[in-house]
Model the fold of this input.
Amino acid sequence: MKSDQNRRKYLSEYQSPEFTIKSTNLAFELDETQTRVLSKLQISRQTDSLDAPLVLDGIGLTLLNLNIDGTSLHSGQYGVTEYQLTIFEVPDEFEFSCEVEINPAANTRLEGLYLSSGNFCTQCEAEGFRFITYYIDRPDVMSVFETRISAPKAGFPIMLSNGNRIRSGESGNRHWVEWSDPYPKPCYLFALVAGDLARIDGEFITASGKAVALQFFTEHHNRQKCAHAMRSLQKAMKWDEDTFGLEYDLDLFMVVAIDDFNMGAMENKGLNVFNTKYVLANPQTATDNDYLAIEAVIGHEYFHNWTGNRVTCRDWFQISLKEGLTVFRDQEFSSDMASRSIQRINDVRMLRNHQFPEDAGPMSHPVRPASYQEINNFYTATVYNKGAELVRMIHTLLGKDNFRKGMDLYFQRHDGQAVTTDDFRLAMQDASGVNLDQFQLWYQQSGTPRIEISRDFDQAEKTLYLEIKQDPGTTLGKANQPFHMPMRLALFDQQGKAIDLDGQGLLEQIVDIKEQNHRFKFEGIDQEPLVSAFRGFSAPIITGSDLRDEELATLMSCDTDPFNRWEAGQQYATRVMLGRIVSKDVQKPVHPREMLEAYRVILDDDKMDYALVAEMMILPSEKYLGEMLDSVDVHKIRLVREGTRGLIAEATEDLLLKRYEECSEQGEYRVTPEDTGKRSLKNICLAFLLILEKTKYFDLCLQQFNNAGNMTDQIGCLLPIVHFQNPVREEIVRRYYEQWQKTALVVDKWFSAQASSYAKDSLAHIKTLFDHPDYSIHNPNRARSLLGSLIANSSAFHELGGAGYEFVAGKIIEIDAINPQVAARMANAFLHWRKLLPSQGQLMKQQIEIIISTPNLSSGLNELMTASLSTD
Ligand code: BES
Ligand code: ZN
Done:
């Protein structure tokens, strides 16, 4: 029955479940290798299913016994395959019970019940519950759960599940506990944790005065590192009350941090399970970015309690219903906690570097996909990040107050239900009166729309005609219909002063774009203005404009929207670098003097936030540049981008040093926008200075490393130094490891940094790291830190001759047999072979063919590799 796992599922085939499960009663007898799971399910037939058999999902389970209404079934009454249990005849209402045995110690996939550092934990989304027991494993089957856990007292003092703890007791050397979750939920939100864990306590009083106990659980040696995550949780709870009127609904909220986890974190009802990476922090071991990521992920999983758990997904085509919306919510939370413009810059960077390439490649799919083979392949940048952009556009189109009304209506209508993205859109439409019919195309059509903006200025009439042309792209080769999107717009005069748009002081306007062609008219304008369009990235599109270089430079220093200031710099640098990439002679020294001058202006602007200066100094990524080209020579892109950074470093050396020194004054470590901005600018200046390869800057790097009081400053040295063949590199790499070898998350950064080295022979060196005693294929963080960084490093992965492709393909095949979800994530790197130069592309394709012909390949990896070779 392999066909079942590899079969494509279609949204159009959706049928409501034939049976529902009113209540689920589970009893776990925990044992490392022989765990028994006894389940009792109250099942009822849905009226229109007549005499359909009961079909339950289950994989890798040893069935011990099976009962309907207390009578055990004999072998003729049911059938078992590798993936399902079918009971041929069942009454309309009955109690189903079964006992199975599973082996958590042998579970390397990290889906279902497994062991991490000796502790039991579960991961059930999307379809992991079927590795625990037989069940109707789909999100529109919602049930209340009661869970009894029994384990040896010695190794497992802590035993957790969803909801409230209702009873406990002991017998002999074992003890037991019972949990009850009153809120009906799909089984993907089930969780169980048992082990010897430290508990960190906190509290939150809700707006209506209820005390909620907050409990974090970690391994004992990490107990001092949970304070930031605890504070983040309290802030998130408060923010959701203030922003959306949403209160927490149980008396207890638990977070467990574990080392071995496929994803970042999981929103199980009342019992979130986290990768330690998104919980543990102190200034010595976590960077500023880690601090911000922890706040964001804690917020994200907490926010799912309403957007995902109370209102869940009807089917897995609707993942964006919960993920897109919840990403939007965590982005807004982070914006309110720190800096809105820096948050927006980073969110857009993420979209451009990951979602745009995905949407232009062979796995391109709409935010609500129409079909999938392996659901784990659809937790994508498109579903998450483009999905969040759709919610953001709705927010822009409706305005803040109407958006809030839409959310209120959504919960009023759908609390306790499993629904679709259409239900969300309709709630927004009905609450606001804003028509979102055309907007639904965003959920159905894939591809990134392109918008061309051009000016037609009539000096005599003092009138600007703004032409907006939309190319909506294609979905599966078929032309898309035009999208509905909001364009935030401002105009500036040539000196960079904002222009009054309506004669009454209106400086920004939101216009609806719905057609393929628009022509907007602005009167009373004295000279040809600069157009600041799609401010704040008001739609997830690729734009081209007719702004001249010097006009971009003006917007870089004058635009009143910090995001568009950054954006003007990105467009300018993209233009200059693409020009050099497509020119025949790369060696020819092109000195884009005006651009270099613009960077001097930015570095010299003491009115700008440190953080914004820092962001503006980061050139568009190699990935983004590649995305703007039809055929990609990754080595040339790196050469040009690094060359441009070198030119900037030469042209701004004095200012870089001045800024470096200015930002080096240190007080007590705090994660405030001001302080993180300072550290970020300081470390960017250091990275630029190192490019000049002067002894004094290598010394400066070493000096910073010696004096660093926090991980941000240490990493600020390690990351840029790995590119150079220099004794300082050797010293920093060695001493960093000596200092941190016992701290897993910090060692991950060490592997990752070395695997990102631009140095010529980097692949050879990176290969040796796979033999390092600390490397482990079983820990996803470690595997990703080394292999993931190698893949992102074009010098190594795309080494001429194909040695990188061959090495990585071998590792992916090896990981696939252990943990298919991690393997598939890594394998995304092979999707884009067609865009490479033919010589490189063919070498990559050979490795895809090797992967695809591997026996027992997982369904997920099979889907990706097949897509990469398909010709349509
Ligand atoms: N529900 C997901 C976790 C998940 C995804 C589990 C796919 C199993 C399969 C969770 O809410 C999530 O989205 N986590 C993100 C972090 C978040 C901040 C975007 C993750 O784990 O990367
Ligand atoms: Zn999520």
Notes: The chain is about 40% helix and 20% strand. The radius of gyration is 28 Å. The pocket of zinc ion (ligand 2) is lined by residues 300, 304, 323, 326 (CB under 6 Å).
